[in-house]
Model the fold of this input.
Amino acid sequence: MTDQREMTVEPMRRRHLGAVREIDTKVYPRPWSLALYLQELNRPETRIYSIVRDEKVIVGYGGLMVVGTDGHVTSVATDPEYAGRGVATRALLSICRGAALKDCTALTLEVRSSNAGAQRLYARFGFAEAGVRKNYYTDVGEDAVIMWAHRTDEAEFLGDLREIEAALSGPTRWLDQ
Ligand SMILES: CC(C)(COP(=O)(O)OP(=O)(O)OC[C@H]1O[C@@H](n2cnc3c(N)ncnc32)[C@H](O)[C@@H]1OP(=O)(O)O)[C@@H](O)C(=O)NCCC(=O)NCCS
Done:
């Protein structure tokens, strides 16, 4: 079964940006520019960007910005053809663990209020709703739900990540650290 295929997780590099931006055009109304990605990748001390591959095909990615001891999830996206196969879960596992290695003690993100699927994914990782930013997405006047996960550097959270990984139906090769 395709779900049993091994996926590889590794740091995002410039050579990945063509495929990453192709995914963005499929899932985001306003994809990031190449310049913005290059800026992010040029700040490795405060950024973590990981891609997920099925063999050579890039099928998703996640990103995080470190601000003090907070990690701010900037983006998580999966090629719609690979939805529901644990791609975003692997990307989030990678950036959550990377954040702990950069001494983040909490993680936060904004997600569209209509995006129930993403909110479920984040809730599984221990993110809880902490408020709403009205009209945050000015393109359609949609609210953002603000979510936080706390104590993300502690053994309990890191143990939960191991359980999430164990529940994935296929194996993962981690080249992200
Ligand atoms: C939200 C998004 C990132 C989820 O990506 P995904 O790769 O499909 O997510 P996963 O497969 O890891 O998990 C999604 C679901 O699949 C299930 N799943 C995970 N691994 C699975 C597997 N191997 N087989 C079957 N189902 C699986 C999960 O339980 C989860 O179920 P749930 O919806 O009931 O929580 C994706 O839909 C997307 O790119 N959306 C557009 C961009 C976006 O909204 N990003 C988030 C806001 S920044």
